[in-house]
Specification:
By secondary structure, the chain is an alpha/beta fold. A hairpin with a 4-residue loop joins β2 and β3. Strands 5-6-7-8-9-10-11 form a seven-stranded parallel β-sheet. It has a four-stranded antiparallel β-sheet with strand order 3-2-1-16, with helices on both faces. Strands 4-14-13 form a three-stranded antiparallel β-sheet, with no helix packed on it. The longest helix has 19 residues. The protein is 37% helix and 21% strand. The chain folds into two domains: 140 residues, Enolase-like, domain 1 (2-Layer Sandwich), CATH 3.30.390.10; 236 residues, Alpha-Beta Barrel (TIM Barrel). The site of magnesium ion has 6 residues, from loops.
């Protein structure tokens, strides 16, 4: 079907839903090395574990999705092993044989088959949008409401913990016009030492914006004591300072802080986002597929947060180009993404899993415009990094 050919009044082309039925779902476990150690308050990685999902439709179209984790089941409950098991054993069988274009219906079926397991569900959902988009010759963003934005300013994370290395890295990124906004991962050592590290960074990077991610490492008392110092340094945003389950205290901290506070690990489901919004637990929400469990659901989370007056931030979990493209498809359709995005993941890998379709430059990442997720997946490279080959899910 040529979508550019005009259709006369009353003519109905439709499309063959039968051809879009899911005939196969496979998983591949990939370990992709990173260019340097990436340290968070609760984990450190030098290799990124990724579960790639490949869905094949009756018409032969293939779509890819990515299940992301950081350091096993540490950033959240899911691990590469649990994602693969959930896809193979529960999620893929729940949607086998169904028309892949019924995204909402399949999302419901997956939600019934597995509670939470949002990274696994998002990986399949991304693959469905990719395969259906390729079948209809439409970008996934078109299936999500159509593009509002062509690209976004992209943030880079400084996370080696070695301030001299971080200054050199950031200066290099700035000079190359790749990044001028930096997220510093803190909570690695005592707050006083972190403030000194941040002061060095702020002094060395006068034309850059700095935000911090505490990844739940601070107590409420530490927040009260040290957030004023962050404010003095001109830090633009504080991400998830306290434990994810402690939304009440996050609300108290948000109320007291003059620096905006972002909720990340503390709000996964739309219900949690609604509660955070109603309680004032953060004035910014980090949007992530691993939290929402699907592309449309991510869009819903954005809508609910916006209705509560929260600003939106395009979060990541260091996804490769596959996962980054899935996020950008959604982000591109949002009325506003106030803080831009941090999808630097493809560039922290020594080599991305995609060989084309995703372009970075001039401090921005452009949203892919090709069919499906719009990226060219490098299967050969993925297989080189894979632990075994593709595994077929139960049907
Ligand atoms: C997180 O908590 O935001 C995203 C970027 C990064 O450096 O860590 C992740 C996880
Ligand atoms: Mg975070």
């Amino acid at each position: 079907m040529n979508v550019l050919e005009p259709v006369s009044a009353n003519e109905h082309r439709g499309f063959d839903e039968d051809a879009l039925r899911i005939v196969r779902t496979e998983t591949l476990s990939v370990t992709a090395p990173t260019i340097r150690a990436h340290k968070l308050s609760n984990t450190e990685i030098s290799n990124k574990s990724i579960i790639v999902v490949r869905v094949t439709l009756g018409n032969g179209a293939v779509g890819y999705g990515e299940g992301s984790t950081l350091g096993g089941p540490r950033w959240a409950e899911e691990s590469p092993e649990s994602i693969r098991a959930a896809v193979d054993k529960y999620l893929a069988p729940a949607i086998f044989g169904q028309p892949a274009n019924r995204f909402e219906m399949l999302g419901q079926a997956m939600g019934k088959a597995a509670t939470r397991n949002t990274a696994a569900r998002a990986a399949i959902d991304s693959a469905l949008y990719d395969a259906v988009g390729r079948s209809l010759d439409l970008p996934a963003s078109q299936l999500l409401g159509g593009r509002v934005h062509d690209g976004f300013e992209v943030i880079w994370a400084l996370a080696s913990g070695d301030v001299d290395q971080e200054i050199e890295e950031a200066r290099g990124k700035f000079a190359a016009r790749e990044h001028r906004r930096f997220k510093v991962k803190i909570g690695l050592s005592e707050p006083r030492a972190e403030i000194q590290r941040l002061a060095r960074l702020a002094e060395a990077l006068p034309d850059c914006e700095i935000i911090v991610d505490v990844n739940q490492a601070w107590t409420v008392a530490q927040c009260y004591r040290w957030i004023p110092a962050l404010e003095e340094l001109g830090i633009a945003l504080i991400e998830q300072p306290v434990a994810s389950g402690d939304r009440r205290n996050l609300a108290r901290i948000t109320e007291r802080s003059r620096v905006p506070v972002m909720i990340d690990e503390g709000a996964f489901s739309v219900g949690e986002v609604a509660e955070a919004g109603a309680d004032g637990a953060g004035t910014v929400l980090s949007l992530k597929l691993v939290k929402s469990g699907g592309l449309m659901e991510l869009k819903r989370a954005a809508g609910i947060a916006s209705a509560h007056g929260m600003e939106l931030y395009g979060g990541c979990l260091l996804e490769s180009g596959i996962g980054a493209a899935a996020h950008l498809a959604v982000f591109s359709t949002l009325p506003k993404l106030h803080w831009g995005t941090e999808h630097f993941g493809p560039k922290i890998l020594t080599r991305d899993l995609v060989s084309g379709g995703l372009n970075f430059g001039d401090f921005r990442v452009e949203c892919p415009t090709g069919p499906g997720l719009g990226v060219i997946v490098d299967e050969d490279h993925m297989l080189e990094l894979a632990d075994g080959g593709w595994r077929s899910a139960a049907s």
